[in-house]
Amino acid sequence: MATAMGPAAPTDACYMLIHPRLDVETPNLQTLKRNLERGTDDIKAEALQQVISGTLQGENHDQLLMHIIRFVMPTRNKTLKKLLLLYWEVCPKYEADGKLKQETILICNALLNDLQHPNEFIRGSTLRFLCKLREAELLEPLIGPTRECLSHRHAYVRKNAVEAVSSIYRTLPHLIPDGPELISGVLQTEADMTCRRNALTMLTQSAPALAVQWLKENAQLVSGFEELLQLAVIDLIRRTARDFASEKALFIRCIFELLNAAPSAVKYEAATTLVTLSSNPAAVKAAASCYITLATKESDNNVRIIVLERLDRLRMRHEGIIDDLVMDLLRVLTAPDLDVRRKVLGIVMKLTSQRNVNDVISMLKKELAKTVSDASDYDKNTDYRLLVIQTIHSCASQFPEVAASVVELFLDSIADFGASSATDAIVFIREVAEKFPDLRQGIVSHLVASFMDFKAGKVMRGALWILGEYAETPDEIREVWTRLRKAIGELPLLAAEQRELDAASASADGAEKSAEPKAASSGSRRILADGTYATESSLTARATEASSLKLDSKPPLRAVLLHSDFFTGTVLASTLTKLVLRFARASSADEEQQVNSLRAEAVLIMAGIIRIGQSSFVTTPIDEDSYDRVLACIRALEYMDEDSDVLTEAFIDDTQSAFARLVKGETKRVEEEERKHSNDNAVQVDDVIEFRLLAAANKGASVSAEDTLEHDIELATGEAEGRAAVSKLDSVVQLTGFSDAVYAEAYVNVNQYDILLD
Description:
- It is a single chain.
- By secondary structure, this protein is mainly alpha-helical.
- It contains 34 helices and six strands.
- The strands form three sheets. The protein has a two-stranded antiparallel ribbon. Strands 3-4 form a two-stranded antiparallel ribbon. It has a two-stranded antiparallel sheet with strand order 5-6.
């Protein structure tokens, strides 16, 4: 953000905006000078904070530099010394002509004294400050004390001294030309793990040959290092694997040892690095096993999802290699988070093959049984059950050999499912019945046996459609008809309901008469407006509750009709029509009387549906579409003798062929998507083969571009290496809203460990 604030020149850079406190008056220069000169340590600290804040926002405080040097710099207060280091970092150190100010000599002398201070905190803080300096005139006198701090007795001073040497060598290598050798000696003799980590990081960036040599000498000890040093070793391997290809065996051996490390971060980075070093199936399986272990043991759901995303990318790049780990991956389903489970099941579906489909289905059956038996969290169990059912559905669609066992499972458990889960299960059963004719008889028998347990209208409609389409023999039709009659209840529908209502009204009148004396005795006296007394009594009627309770206890088909679900009524009418037409076509001439009996009973049921829909027993009357559909079914049965062939074609042949086309179209669509995905990932026979070792050093190989650290940085910043400056506009990040007083946007640029917002 290049913006000038206050009296600063337009060319001055303002690196930070700090909102001023409205409850505190901003002091002027004279007040700041007085506070810095005569105030106590607390007053000086507050004044110095105000100076730092103003300088960061572009205010000109050059006149205060000598006051700070004279009156604040000699202090022994540690808070003031820390604030001084912040001020030295932000204060202007150059004159207008570009020369270093004379006052900086005094700053250099103060820093030199702090580097020799007996207090470890002051020494360490000063060394950290040296990492921010870029002025050779200031750093040159401080090189000697900085080198001496590398052998200080306290680890805090030594680790900051390593960082200071590393920063100076990167920016001004002529000041300390033997920096890598110096740090290499520290790495050999140092005992503190943090110091060793800093030293190894410095060698990795500045002298990778020395770092690799150290790794060769200490390869047997890698598994015993602490987490920070192990991560530094992994970073060294990632950065140097291409330039030191002869040491690839050493690198892979170290990475394999780190896969068994205790810290999760080390395991994750080791697995990620391993697949960049080798595409060997053993290495890929080891990395995938490490990812699965992390996803199983980690408690943070965000970490689990990140690890699973990485596992999915590994599967895409190495098709078929990690299929054997699908059962281990299913252990991650113990996680309570639904997003994690959804991600796991998505990967499991892609890893399932002919070899492991039976094991996967067995495991999913157990998970489905858990959702039915566990009632601890109903909402989560319902969502997870639906997810498992959809996964089993997809699995059975891809591998027809398990369809029979899956259908049997769904038919046995569908009564225990919720509405959404049962709907998805009945859709799958309908699809299987179309694809596999050998299973139709068993499906019809199971649905007939379980029909009385269905409660949801969608499930009933699916079951009715299946029964109407696939009950073909006379015995099956009789069995289905008997079950449907039981699910409908007493006929005629309207007359039966009226009799129940009359009986309920009679019982309610008797209860009201018996409750009248009690109501009078429980009344309360009130004074009316004209001064007379009146007795107020209340009587609670339970006829409505009794009727609603009786509605829930009615047969399932009758209950859904009384709940104004006339769409299910139209499906019932179509099913009855199909059953009558099928029975008439499959029966002999001697069974004509039975055909007429079924025909009359079907018409009676359909007429009852219409009359119920037009009565006061339902809250919502029957809609016109449902009315027309039921009436069409009645007329079809009325004229079935004259137009038998036409009706059979319309109600039986056309519906079955239409659904068959739908199933084939869906199957074709899935196959085309899979074929398109395989074509996108396929390698053509005439594709160019790129050898990484033969590629130019400044270009690299596109084959392993995804494996490099630079590629990760490009993904993080949204910038591809070598893009034109104009294309940077595509990666601009908006920092404020369009309606804010100040609009700000930035472009992210990463240089090693420095992240710059341009």
